[in-house]
């Protein structure tokens, strides 16, 4: 039976099909286009017999997903954050306050290694979550991602302007406003990953997984950690089994 797995984020809505033969290629739509009603239902969704959704995209996108999947007669489960699942314990006093993408990514990482692991999810925001060797979530951080850093400079300053940002992983001092902004963002995020690495040593955590739309870009700054681009989608299978 084919299961449709959907990761609805702030920037992209990603999906794939899972069956006994494995998983299909991950596809995506811009979440903004879904909110604006400018998308058609993906053809491959019609092949699914059930769907699981991890969504932080908000009410408009969730309502669209519910309506589309109902029209296709596909039962859908919007997964929720819990206090404990599959040997993983949530640090939040109120688990429902946590973004479900963080919880599902932690679950996937924990099930993969069953050892101490840190998950860095690089999207519109960057989240960092630490899980120790006993499966206890130690807590985490939420900081702006590259795009939010850039947009905050545009919105809060008058003199910092640029035509186009260079595509670069450099953390060297820039020689133009565009290079200063781009490399400055890289510099901050590089420092973040170095601190994450130091904290993992302190907490006896041996694995760092990078996921999310900007994970590859984040990885190129320091080469810290291991790229795991589909952690949220990977985690959905464990909620189904539970």
Summarize the SSE layout with pairings.
Layout lengths: L2 E6 L3 E8 L2 E2 L3 E4 H5 L14 E6 L3 H13 L4 E3 L5 E2 L2 E2 L10 H14 L3 E6 L2 E7 L5 E8 L1 H11 L20 H26 L4 E5 L3 H8 L3 E2 L3 H11 L1
Parallel strand pairs: 1-5, 5-6, 9-12, 12-13
Antiparallel strand pairs: 1-2, 2-3, 2-4, 7-8, 9-10, 10-11
How does this structure look, described?
The protein is of the alpha/beta class. The chain has 2 domains: 3-78, ATPase, nucleotide binding domain (Nucleotidyltransferase, domain 5), CATH 3.30.420; 84-146 and 177-238, Nucleotidyltransferase, domain 5, CATH 3.30.420. It is 36% helix and 25% strand. It contains 7 helices and 13 strands. The strands form 3 sheets. Strands 1, 2, 3, 4, 5 and 6 form a 6-stranded mixed β-sheet that branches. A 5-stranded mixed β-sheet has the order 11-10-9-12-13, with helices on both faces. Strands 7-8 form a two-stranded antiparallel sheet. Strand 10 and strand 11 form a beta hairpin. The longest helix is centred in the C-terminal third of the chain and has 26 residues, at 177-202. The protein is globular, with a radius of gyration of 19 Å.
């Amino acid at each position: 039976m084919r299961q449709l797995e959907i990761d609805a984020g702030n920037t992209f809505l990603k999906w794939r099909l899972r069956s006994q033969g494995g998983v299909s290629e991950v596809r995506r739509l811009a979440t903004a286009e879904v909110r604006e009603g400018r998308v058609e239902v993906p053809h491959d969704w019609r092949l699914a017999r059930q769907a699981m959704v991890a969504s932080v995209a908000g009410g408009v996108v969730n309502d669209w997903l519910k309506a589309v999947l109902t029209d296709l007669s596909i039962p859908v489960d919007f997964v929720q954050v819990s206090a404990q699942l599959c040997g993983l314990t949530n640090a939040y006093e109120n688990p429902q306050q946590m973004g479900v993408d963080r919880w599902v990514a932690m679950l996937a990482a924990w099930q993969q290694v069953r050892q101490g692991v840190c998950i860095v999810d690089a999207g519109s925001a960057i989240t960092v979550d630490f899980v120790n060797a006993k499966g206890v979530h130690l807590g985490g951080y939420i900081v702006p991602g590259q795009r939010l850093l850039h947009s905050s400079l545009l919105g809060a300053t008058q003199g910092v302007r640029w035509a186009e940002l260079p595509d670069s992983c450099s953390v060297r001092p820039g020689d133009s406003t565009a290079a200063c902004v781009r490399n400055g963002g890289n510099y901050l995020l590089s420092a973040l990953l170095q601190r994450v690495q130091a904290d993992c040593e302190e907490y006896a955590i041996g694995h760092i997984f990078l996921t999310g739309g900007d994970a590859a870009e984040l990885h190129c700054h320091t080469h810290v950690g291991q790229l795991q681009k589909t952690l949220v989608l990977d985690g959905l299978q464990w909620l189904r089994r539970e």
